[in-house]
Design goal:
about 220 residues; alpha/beta; 6-stranded parallel sheet; 10 helices; globular
């Protein structure tokens, strides 16, 4: 799929790419509306609509990913609710073998995530993900989400990267497009980010459902 000789650095999204997206989907689409319904005396449908409307206002912005923003907007203990679901924070089964193979092949592995630092810390605490990475950056450190060109410029400068020799892996096609526009040389989609949902179809990028499919060429 790739000529690995042309790739020095692999940039990896976290949720849905290295971790099962089921945790986040369940949290934001189920637990948050349920808690709003309970606390405010709303019907489940009313709470669901309230949440959807709030999400739509900031989709694609840094606020969309900011736990502090949602704590203020929804008046919920967002981190407290996160901790009630830590058993659902799970690595994809193919992530650590892939990260280990990248290391063996001499590739730099950088976590590139929109996840808020508080959520990132929680997920690192409850998985072994950090052991498979060389570096990491949250978009909240840069002031821009991955959807914004400035995020990528900041990333390239911070880690002294040659964009054309980077591979970026993400489960979001719009974010893959943003990376390509910023000059990242190679992109790859993850078609099964949530283990409880059907496989997604990518229109403009190659996509896989299992990192093991990359190992033969990588370790050749």
């Amino acid at each position: 799929m790739f000529n690995w000789k042309t790739i020095d650095t692999v940039l990896l999204d976290m949720d849905g790419t290295l971790l099962d997206l089921h945790f986040d989907n369940h949290f934001w689409l189920n637990l948050v509306p349920q808690e709003l319904s309970r606390q405010r005396g709303l019907s489940e449908d009313e709470a669901q609509q309230l949440v959807v409307n709030a999400y739509e206002k900031v989709v694609g912005t840094l606020d969309w990913y900011c736990l502090d923003y949602w704590q203020e907007q929804l008046q919920l203990d967002i981190m407290g609710l996160h901790r009630t679901l830590v058993d659902r924070i799970q690595l994809r089964q193919d992530s650590m073998p892939f990260l280990a193979a990248l290391a063996s092949a001499g590739k730099q592995r950088i976590l590139v995530t929109n996840t808020h630092p508080k959520s990132l810390a929680l997920k690192l605490e409850h998985t072994e993900l950090a052991a498979g990475l060389d570096a990491m950056i949250s978009s909240h450190e840069t002031g821009y989400p991955k959807e914004h060109p400035q995020f990528w410029l900041t990333l390239f400068e911070k880690f002294q990267l040659e964009p054309s020799r980077c591979l970026f892996i993400d489960d979001s096609e719009p974010i893959l497009k943003a990376a390509k526009l910023a000059g990242v040389g190679h992109q790859l989609g993850i078609a099964n980010p949530d283990s409880k949902k059907p496989v997604k179809v990518f229109q403009d990028f190659p996509a896989i459902t299992d990192y093991h499919s990359l190992l033969k060429d990588l370790t050749r």
